[in-house]
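Supplementary Note 3. Input sequence used for the single-chain structure prediction.
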Amino acid sequence: MTARNFRTTFWQKGIREGAWLTWDRIGFACLCSGIGLSLGLVWMLLVPNSFGAANGTVLMDYFSFWLAGRQALAGAPELVYIPAEFSALQKSLSGSDTIFGFFYPPTFQMLLTPFAALPYKAAFAVFILSTTALLCVSCRLITGKWLLAACLIIIPACANNAFHGQNAALTAALYGFFLVGVERQRMILAGIALGILTIKPQLGILAPVALIATLNWRTFLSASATTVVLAAASVLCFGVGVWQVFWQQAPVASAMMEIGGVEWGKMISVYGSLRQLGIGHAVAMGLQAGVGIGALVCVWRVWRRTEDMAVRSAVLVGGTLLVTPFALSYDLTLLIIPCAFVIRDGLRNGFLPFEKILLAFVISLSASTPAFAIFLGFPMAPLLPLAIVWLGLRRLDLSGEGRAQTGEPGHISGTASA
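The predicted structure, written as discrete structure tokens, is reproduced below.
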């Protein structure tokens, strides 16, 4: 084979069609990832390591979740929304100066209480296993295959979420249930999933836009009712005072973001990337708002013009991660959901040119953005949700705009192997 033929074959098969992404290679990579994730969690929770305080507490994000649940069980849920007191509590229990904020509404605190009844490390493990299992069920509903779902929940972003003890697997699962419900015309159930997603409200900013664009009032009302019921339940459990303290603390989160209290390199938003590049707060927020408006327009356009969920999910979830200024690296776990829809559609109808390589790029780098930003000075994180949005818009254009409107299958080139 000549050098020219090699270059042509490499470009055509390796890059354009992604022919090297065979099930054998993907399966082996997933097996290694699963083993590594399991061993990593065992090491972090059971073996003394650099993440442990002197008393053995694993100093990761879940520490604040567990304490929030413990304070609720102790009858003092409002303490977690008083930064000085919550910091003092963490220091007294861990013996370390490392502290974590808790900026979630009382509805999420209420959901944490069952886990807080367990010892800390057991609660950490149960929380991660249960929320990741929910994500696996969500991916199974999307793809129709347990094996494919299992592969999706051990991608780097999900592993990153697990090591932090964060809730991105839960929010991704809820997004998946919402989108599956809409796709299968289970509008009330879709609304319930979306209503529960208000435990992390910045991730639901664009969902009402999608529902209004499609005049989906049943899901809209179901989500609204679920939100009210959850809030009322938290008032019954904790009293109205905890909500008052929560709203009083809300500006602290904005201040922490503005002053870099959360490292900008660990953020995945346009705002965080611009701040790391030395751009001031006002200009960065203005550009963030511009990107947000663009994402909103894309969601409106796509949800009005097609019922293809591979397109809808890519633009909605990718746009959601672009529109919020406050999102961290583990939130890239949400990209599992549009990836699942696109992979399902690609296996059925064929992948677009360069689509498989793009998916591989997004998945493989989904836990590496802080390293690129902090050590290399390259804040690449917004490129990943942007790539997913572009993938969705490209499918809308190249597969025949609004295939569901014409009833004719669109032409998608490429192979059906994965």
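Residues 45-100 form one domain. The chain is about 70% helix and 0% strand.
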